[in-house]
Amino acid sequence: MFAFVRQADADQKSARCLACHQDSRAISFWNMSRHKVNGISCDKCHTVHSGTSKNLRAKEPALCITCHLSIRAQLSKQSHHPLKEGLMKCTQCHAQHGEFGSKMIKADSVNELCFKCHAEKRGPFMWEHPPVEENCLTCHVPHGSNHTKPLTSRPPLLCQKCHDAPQHPGNIYTNFETFRGTAASSKNRMFARACLNCHSNIHGSMGPSTRGKHFVR
Amino acid sequence: MLIFSMASFSAALAEDDKLSGEVSATGTLTSVGGSKAKFNEYRDVRDGVYGDVKLKYEDEKYHMDLSAQDMGYDTQRYSIRGGVWGDFKVDLNYDELPHNITYDAKTFYSGAGSSNLTYPTQPPSTNTNSWSTFDYSTKRKNLSGGFQLDKLKPFFFDVSASSEQKTGTYPIGAAGTTPGGIDIELPAPVDYRTDTVNMAAGYIRNPLRVSLGHMYSSFSNNNLNLNFRNPATANTSSATDTFTLPPDNYDYKVNLIGSLRLPMNSKLDMKVAMGSSKSDANLLTSYVADVPGGLTNIALNKSTFNGQVDTRNLAMSLTSKPLAFLDGRLFIKYDERENKSDQIAITDATQSPATFTNTLFDYRKVKYGAELGFRLPAKFYLNTNYSYGTISRLRDDIPENRDNTYGAELKWTGLDFMAARVGYERLDRKADFEAPAVPSIETYIRRFEAAAKYQDTYKASLDFFPIENLNFSLSYRYKETNYPDTILGLTGEKHDEFAIDADYLIGEWVRLFAFFDYERIRQEQFQRQTTTAFDPSLPPSTTNFNWTANQKDETYSYTVGTDIFIIKDKLTLRLQHSYLESNGSVDYTYLLGGNPLPLGRTQDNIDLSNLDDYKLRYYLVKLTYNINKASSVAVGYAYEKYIYSDAQYDGYQYVPATTGTNGAYLTGAYNDPSYESHIVFLTVSYRF
Lengths: 217, 688
Fold this sequence. Notes:
The complex is a heterodimer.
Chain A: H1 10-21, H2 34-37, H3 62-65, H4 69-75, H5 110-115, H6 130-134, H7 157-160, H8 209-213
Chain B: H1 2-13, E1 19-34, H2 36-39, E2 48-58, E3 62-69, E4 77-84, E5 88-107, E6 116-117, E7 132-149, E8 155-175, E9 183-205, E10 208-221, E11 225-229, E12 240-244, E13 249-262, E14 266-282, E15 286-288, E16 295-297, E17 299-300, E18 304-323, E19 326-339, E20 345-347, E21 355-357, E22 363-376, E23 380-393, E24 400-415, E25 418-431, E26 453-464, E27 470-482, E28 489-506, E29 510-529, E30 545-567, E31 571-591, E32 613-626, E33 631-645, E34 664-665, E35 675-687
Parallel strand pairs in B: 6-11, 9-34
Antiparallel strand pairs in B: 1-2, 1-35, 2-3, 3-4, 4-5, 5-7, 7-8, 8-9, 9-10, 10-13, 11-12, 13-14, 14-18, 15-16, 17-20, 18-19, 19-22, 20-21, 22-23, 23-24, 24-25, 25-26, 26-27, 27-28, 28-29, 29-30, 30-31, 31-32, 32-33, 33-35
């Protein structure tokens, strides 16, 4: 029906589609889309009447990682959201046709987006952990990480980036504090899940007294 | 049988090309050694037959899509969507999502998976052979549906609803006594339900869009507490300890969205939203401690906690293309979190001060900026951006950040067969810091997300397709972050990413494909171990000294493969190999000056050389035969081997000690996820 050529201006290509689809609520924010700014026209992702779902050239996430190569690498890491298994789609979190916020997420804030699936983290808790309330991405990598959960780095070092205090938070935990250390040197602040061995309610707690304040109950 | 019966049924209906679809069945034989939980972390691959059905019906008036995948398995998904063109659309979906963490975990408790964990005699047995086994695993079951009304165009109405149940068991841990006690790993029950309804109604016809939306979500947890007998409390052997679990909550939000096309190829978009999250919890008035009598009683000024957090959001954007060579955008975004939760006064005689309250955290974020894009001669396109943002927090030590971000990206599409792009972005973050009135270790800590920082990001990419059948992409990104004011904490981070992607069709007989990804993350921390001498500039001693940790995570992966079209459009052989490797390490340094390191330690033998190290090998051989245009059969073999190694799990012990800071009762959560698998599969497909 249309014969797009490679070097044609992306806006001109998309204009043909928008001539019919401009009143579609699904693409009413195309003018704000990062895809538009980066010269991605409709035909990069859609074919004309291919018979596939939404006339997409490929399924998600294969379609998206054709361009987003660094995300491909993250989705393959050992801790990841189940996109490559086909149980989630990129478009569950991102509005590919444009949204108001950064990364075109389908929410007014990162936390609001995460709480859609992780409603148990929503609280409001009596004892709050401020970085949790401000931005989940302070500690988590959404697409995938080498570290379980998927965290930006491993506890205890992740926690020590913010917590350096007398008694245990500021102590140096090394190879000697792992299971391989001696009975005297091995520490439950280092082996296995490290800080999270005890501070499990790190997303917020209703626990009593300092047990709740320190997220151990 | 399903395929053959569908084939005869569909043949009749498909005569007029209104109905199309595909039915397939895949039989698998699997052999898995090692961690079956990690192998099936988000899947359900086992011996059996997997059925998939896709049906599509379209005529001048109606349309319908039906799909069913993995029927009867833990990953089963069903969807039916349909409607009348231009009038309405409806959809109904059901899907399941497993998350398998660790199978055959062990505990001395009885009741794993319930909200009461007990054991008969104090202390519990340390003979793990006598412990009971259970699985750490959760599963989501989500039923959802939606309706979109288009009949009244330009007016529209959308409604969708979902109900998700999440059940299973996940690992938590509790300090036996605090501070300085053992750790007890506990299987915590998951029995959540989240119900959500979204509605939106509005008007949309060029040049105006206006809509009103509403979201309501409720979360309920069938287990608000986990009761467990605490083995660390010898004085209180009969006392039951309590771990609080996520409270019931509900959340609502309303929004008003408007868009208006303006002269000069411009458009104004606006969104205003406000919402509220609320929770209630009955508070505990005592806690278990290792003291005679067993319980420490506390006094509360209110026995129920009423949580309430209100949010307000505003976003505005003006996009414009006033001239053929110029694109522009102005934007502002405002997000506010107001915490109206109860402040509970707690009196606990064992603490100093004895009376204290929970603190309420609020913030306000404002960001505004501009983007300008210029179409330049010779097919260059330059995009520039600037934004200014602030975060104001209701918090004494880190009350405010101010971000200046500016960047530019240059794209060149001067050749038919090539597109190149280079970009740079700079973030300057200024941060206010209020030191405590009485100097403490907090005087020197700068929390990285709220600390002053400079961040430079460089990126480059190249898409290259010199001949019709060759596609080649290459991208590189480097990000460096420095924290100039940080004394203790994260002081620097460097992040490299590199990726190559290639696809080449040789004649009509062979397609080659390959990609390679590389990522390296380096983080530097400066920390202090101390008892009372907080100032890091003080001369070191064996009990008060600084230390550093340099972490490195290096990951690379590649895939190489080929499709060999042995008989064109008839018989295809795919050969594929993928490899993924990650190496993590931490280089620690004691900064002790002339003081000796603790006995037996050197600056080298303290390091971690394997932190979340893993290797994943994957091989696939698949032969596909298209019997005719409608039917195909594929047979294949896949091999997958995952090897994991981590310093914090090496030499894993369920009970390293029963008292002290090396004490723990662990259950094996996340331990040894390595596995090796063989899968043979046969797929029969019929399309119509």
